[in-house]
# Entry
Amino acid sequence: MVSAHIENALNGQIEVEARSSQYYLSMASWADTKGFSGVSQFLYRHSDEERQHMLKLIHYVNERGGKAVIPSLDKPPSDFDSIQTIFKDLFEHEQRVTRQINEVVDACLKEKDYTTHNFMQWYVSEQIEEEALARNILDKLALIGNDKGGLYLFDRELGAMQSH
Ligand code: FEO
# Structure
């Protein structure tokens, strides 16, 4: 059984994952309209993954005797300056998500909820991969700069890449 405090913390995380999914969906749609089909495929997949992260939490909360709350969400930004901006925003967003996950883990330790602590380790590992991937993409974009041919190849590469 999860305590009320942990239940709240996990419901907060459900909202974070839901927001991530909406945010990346908005980025995907923007890239789609700008002719970056590879980037948009990558981001559509990433958005789906965030939804899976949310669902995993919903199932866990309900299995542990809590009640998962489905959040309402603010409209995400729908315009972006460039592909570079998108991945910079994505990286910063993932860093915030990591901090949020650390807060949940910290709450588990304080409450001695080792079961939820164990469950959350999957998210801790996931964040290492997501941050590394975003950093790697930003490094590539920095190398490409304003080179249109480079950006074309980058788009193709992202279309073929798993989001992690
Ligand atoms: Fe589920 Fe990208 O954090």
